[in-house]
Design a protein that fits this description.
This protein has about 550 residues and is α+β, with helices and mostly antiparallel strands. Helices cover about 30% and strands about 25% of the residues. Helix 8 packs antiparallel against helix 9 and helix 12 runs antiparallel to helix 13.
Length: about 550
């Protein structure tokens, strides 16, 4: 066998030969056929170095036998064994020459080499497979294998199998993959634990949400959503996305979501909520920014008032399938600082649905994000059914799979139109008060008549009249015109609200026995299930309280 014909094909042979040349242990391959040069000619070996022997003088068997890699030489279509080196014998035991490798070398079958060896024998082209694993036997481990054709071994030719043990590298790569997988699982677990485990369901809305982390090759992001009931039938809707990946992004997301819930209790306008979040985001991590959209739905107004910090626009689908897009984002992302956010609004009448989403749903590599939003609009136009059904349809329509390269969060909010018996459970009544000594008596008479027509139990009727009287009296004493009394009932609660033109918010305080005032809000807090106040757009305030409607009352109203 002529070693020079195929030695250069062995992986690393040239590098090892060069290294041996530097150490003077093995002569350089290029010296095998050179003629000696006269002294003084270029390339002449120094006088103190022995002449370089020809490569043909080396024994291929001796060289192959000393290689740490596993070497097998087979011939013919049956892949009969011509040679096995010492490293192979030490790993898998001796193999008799002349035997068919398919019968006595199960390790080659486990490596999946026999089809590859057939291909190499037919094509005459070397092939390499990386990091194949042998799981059984003393030679168990990972190997990178090169199959090289040896054309002149026999009439049908042969194949030289050269297997380098890469178990250490494979184990290190597996440990790295395991570490990354655990880190991802930790981030996903943290992400899901920080999201709402169960969405709040307001009386007037039907809501569903979906969160889908990116595929296994994508790090978890900081997408989040939330639904917060504000009282008096109003609901806050939040969706956001922290720029960045991994546990850190999920942790920042959790802090922002907690802050949003705390700020929402102040019942501030959406743009003021974002203003507070902007400063907080800079304190949490100056190197990370986040987009966020905060919206408030008031069933009395039939509108969605929102403010956006660099987030994608809200989409609203009307009952006839027409899709409207809210105005462009009203400000930069949170954490940039120095910007005064503003609020805007979009109509959300009965029968319509709003969709809030993160960029993972509509952003694709090589495409403008407006194209993705337009595709979402088309998908939403034909998406009907329950909110969760709409979420699932949008994800399918936008081609989001388990291997998607980014997180996706969707929040679908439906304002159902009620007809028939269901409509009898939802009523509104309002009375404008001009002030004067007769305002309180008019408010009590109005509240009594409305609650009687709604056929509430006597106890709830009396509590409602008392609450309306105290709220109006408080407004007459501390507020300014215009004043308005509003009563609203749903299938679960009675809401009483009074608005006036003064923006000073009332607070509960302890009244001394001799005090003639200061007990109104304390009475409201005692008899009502909850109460609160907020400033209204354009100046003024609203003070409200809620009572739970006893079960069975709705049946009597049908």
């Amino acid at each position: 066998m002529n070693f020079t014909r195929w030695s250069a094909r062995l992986p690393g042979t040239q590098r090892r030969a060069a290294a041996r040349t530097d150490r003077s242990s093995v002569p350089a391959a290029r010296g095998e056929s050179e003629t000696p040069q006269e002294p003084g000619q270029e390339g002449e070996p120094p006088a103190d170095r022995a002449p370089v022997p020809a490569l043909d003088e080396l024994s291929a068997r001796e060289v192959l036998g000393q290689l740490p890699a596993l070497v097998v030489l087979v011939y013919g279509p049956e892949h009969r064994i011509a040679y096995v080196n010492d490293a192979y014998t030490e790993a898998f035991g001796p193999r008799a020459t002349g035997s068919a490798a398919t019968e006595v070398m199960p390790e080659l079958d486990e490596l999946g080499l026999f089809p590859l060896m057939d291909q190499v024998l037919r094509s005459g082209t070397a092939r390499t497979v990386k990091s194949r694993r042998v799981r059984t036997g003393p030679g168990a481990g990972s190997y990178t294998v090169t199959c090289t054709p040896v054309k002149h071994l026999q009439e049908d030719g042969g194949v030289l199998v050269f297997a380098a043990d890469v178990s250490d590298h494979a184990d290190a790569a597996e440990r790295l993959r395991t570490s990354e997988r655990r880190q991802r699982e930790t981030a996903v677990t943290l992400q899901r634990s920080l999201l709402p485990q169960e969405l709040e369901q307001p009386d007037d809305l039907r809501i569903a949400a979906t969160y889908q982390p990116g595929g296994t090759d994508a790090a978890v992001g900081g997408d989040w959503y939330d639904v917060i009931t504000l009282g008096a039938g109003r609901t806050a809707l939040v969706i956001g996305d922290v720029m960045g990946r991994g546990v850190r992004a999920a942790a920042v997301m959790g802090q922002l979501r907690t802050a949003v819930r705390a700020y929402a209790r102040l019942d501030l306008p959406p743009h003021e909520i974002l203003q507070l979040l902007d400063g907080l985001a800079s304190e949490i991590d100056p190197n990370q920014i986040a987009t966020c959209l905060y919206a408030v739905h008031d069933p009395n107004e039939g509108r969605l008032v929102y403010a956006s910090a660099g987030h994608l626009p809200v989409l609203v689908r009307d009952e006839d399938g027409t899709v409207r897009r809210a105005a462009d984002p009203t400000g930069p992302p949170l954490g940039t600082g120095g910007y005064q956010h503003t609020s805007d609004s979009i109509a959300l009448p009965p029968g319509s649905a709003a969709v809030l989403y993160t960029d993972g749903l509509v952003e694709r590599r090589g495409e403008d994000i407006d194209e993705g939003v337009a595709a979402l609009e088309r998908a939403l136009s034909g998406a009907s059914g329950a909110p969760q059904v709409v979420c699932d349809r949008l994800i399918r329509s936008l081609g989001v799979t388990a291997e998607h390269d980014d997180d996706v969060a969707i929040l679908v909010v439906q304002h159902p139109s009620r007809t028939g018996p269901a409509a009898e459970l939802f009523h509104n009544a309002a009375l404008d008060l001009l002030g004067g000594v007769e305002a309180a008596s008019r408010a009590r008479a109005f509240a009594s008549g409305v609650l009687t027509s709604w056929r509430f139990p006597v106890e709830l009727h009396d509590l409602g009249v008392l609450a309306a009287s105290e709220l109006v009296a408080n407004s007459l004493q501390h507020g300014t015109p215009p004043m308005r009394l509003r009563l609203r009932r749903t299938d679960r609660r009675l809401i009483i609200e009074v608005t006036d033109g003064d923006d000073h918010l009332p607070r509960r305080r302890r009244a001394e026995p001799a005090d003639e005032a200061g007990r109104g809000i304390s009475i409201i807090a005692t008899i009502a299930a909850s109460w609160g106040s907020r400033r209204t757009p354009g100046g003024g305030k609203a003070v409200w309280c809620e009572f739970a409607v006893p079960r069975g009352t709705e049946d009597r109203n049908r």
